[in-house]
Design brief:
This protein has 116 residues and is of the alpha+beta class. It contains three helices and four strands. It starts with a strand and ends with a helix.
Length: 116
Amino acid sequence: MNLYEHTIIAKQDTSPSEIKQLTEKYSKIVEKNEGEIVKTENWGLLNLSYLIKKNKKGSYIHFKIKGNGTVIDELEKNESIDKKLLRYLTIRVKKFDLDTEYFARKEDNDKKESNT
């Protein structure tokens, strides 16, 4: 099985309930194609480097996926026709970094450090 990190960017006006629906939708596609979601991270609303389809911001969702190439093909086929998404990116990795949360709020990281 291959390991992939997959990130999607939804439009800035997407509601939190729609973000949850998108996460569930793409998780089901992965599971239906014999893949496994190891971890899902909602990075929240972040500024884009440049305008994409007249959007300055986007809601980022990041998946860590175990599976074969057909899982990614099916995911990207569905994402390319989804009107709520601005962009998607898949990267194959050798191993997952499950400990670091790059886009967690600073207060959350301080609490984790003080508990250890």
